[in-house]
Amino acid sequence: MTPLEWHYQKLCQTFNASVCVESIFNTDIDSAHKVAHKHNKSQKWQNQKLKRAQNSQQNKSASLAQATYTKAFSPLLGTKADSIALHPRGMKLDSIQFSQLVDSVRQSKADLRFFIAGPYGFDDEFISKTSAISLSDLTFSHKIVRVVLLEQIYRALSIIHHHPYHK
Description:
By secondary structure, the protein is mainly alpha-helical. The protein has one domain: Alpha/beta knot (3-Layer(aba) Sandwich). Strands 2-1-3 form a 3-stranded parallel β-sheet.
């Protein structure tokens, strides 16, 4: 956990919120990334037929990586209401709407779970079992997303508790 992640985790505790950050990067995920990365490297001079074959292989490699994420994360899923996947095509929420989402799960006494995929995203099977949200139209590194998400959780708790952090 980075110092900034730790900082927001501690801030959330001031609202009696326990925030756990777990990173799942098992050997299956590592292997899928290596296969997909190997197929994503392209040579500068290729003919069209070779490019089409390579694109097909890239799609298969990305699908393998996505299936690996689904296999790793599926045992951690709760209900659709309390399992949130971060996804580019997810719902776009402002801070107030995000705080309402956090508050609704908090009031139900369920654990809220956020899932961040690797570079190839989640497959449709996994997304269908979650409520998907998008933090931004921009693409962020995995480490940046974790900090942004933790800050938004703290901001949501601040809104819920009428704390002056959110103005």
